[in-house]
Amino acid sequence: MSPYVEIDKALFALEDPDKPAIDEILAEGLIVRHFTSGAINAEEFHWYSARLLDVSRRRKEKA
Prior knowledge:
single chain, elongated
C-alpha cells in the first residue's frame, strides 16, 4: 500500500471521536516510519504532522 494512502487512512480514521487516543500515537509513528524510511520527504512529513496536530486538537475540543 502506498505510504500516502496508508497515512491518509490513519488520519481519516481519527476523525471518528470514538477511536481510542492510542490511535493518534499509532498514526504519528506511521508518519515517522515513512519519513525515516525515505518513503515521504521532509515537506510531506511536515504536512502530515500538521494534519495530525489539527485532528488531535479537534478531538480534544470535542472531549
